[in-house]
Design a protein that fits this description.
single chain; mainly alpha; Fumarate Reductase Iron-sulfur Protein, Chain B, domain 2; 2 domains; 50% helix; 0% strand
């Protein structure tokens, strides 16, 4: 497979932005590929972690923000654990996602944005995750409310899901976190 790199006009623009947001130095990567070998999604995407870093080093532009790994990364940090230079690749992916959203290039496939919104809305409302509501909102959004209903009784029985929302959370602190995130959206702070 041939990878096409479109060099940005500004010297190191995307590389510099990613390094600042992720607080990492990508020049330390010498392409041992241990990150790619351990990545659980590397076989499912067109650009594994080592290639993303190399493309950044070579001056890749905004086309990198639309690669599959940016949206498929599990943030499991296996790459970070395997890296001999301790490059936090999960932070690099988070920075790429943030930059893609800022530039309006965010196009994740599937229902991941819907799931994220459903989950975060329950945290915002209850101060903690409320699985039942998050799943219900997600299922309503996808139009598949009845799907997987046969699993619900077993999850209740095993204590994997609660019917009532969680209590005891410091909702004030959570509210301040959401307000600060909204205020700082796109500023990299």
């Amino acid at each position: 497979m041939t990878t096409r790199i479109i060099k940005q006009r500004t010297s190191g623009g995307l590389l510099r932005a990613v390094e600042e947001k992720a607080e990492v130095g990508l020049s330390a990567c010498y392409q041992c590929r241990k990150c790619s070998i351990g990545c659980p999604v590397a076989g499912e995407i067109e650009s594994p972690p080592a290639e993303i870093i190399r493309r950044l080093q070579l001056g890749a532009g905004d086309e990198l923000l639309q690669t599959g790994l940016v949206w498929a990364c599990l943030s499991c940090e296996t790459c970070y654990a395997r890296c001999p230079n301790q490059i936090n690749f999960a932070a690099v992916i988070d920075a790429l996602k943030s930059i893609a959203v800022e530039k309006g290039l965010a196009k994740p496939e599937g229902d991941a944005p819907l799931f994220n919104r459903s989950f975060l809305n329950t945290v915002k409302s209850y101060g903690r995750a409320y699985d039942l509501k998050a799943i219900a909102m997600y299922k309503l959004g996808t139009g598949s409310l009845g799907q997987d209903m046969d699993k619900f009784p077993a999850m209740l029985k095993k204590g994997k899901m609660a019917i009532l929302p969680p209590s005891g959370a410091d909702k004030g602190t959570v509210k301040r976190i959401f307000e600060k995130a909204a205020k700082n959206r796109g500023t990299g702070r």
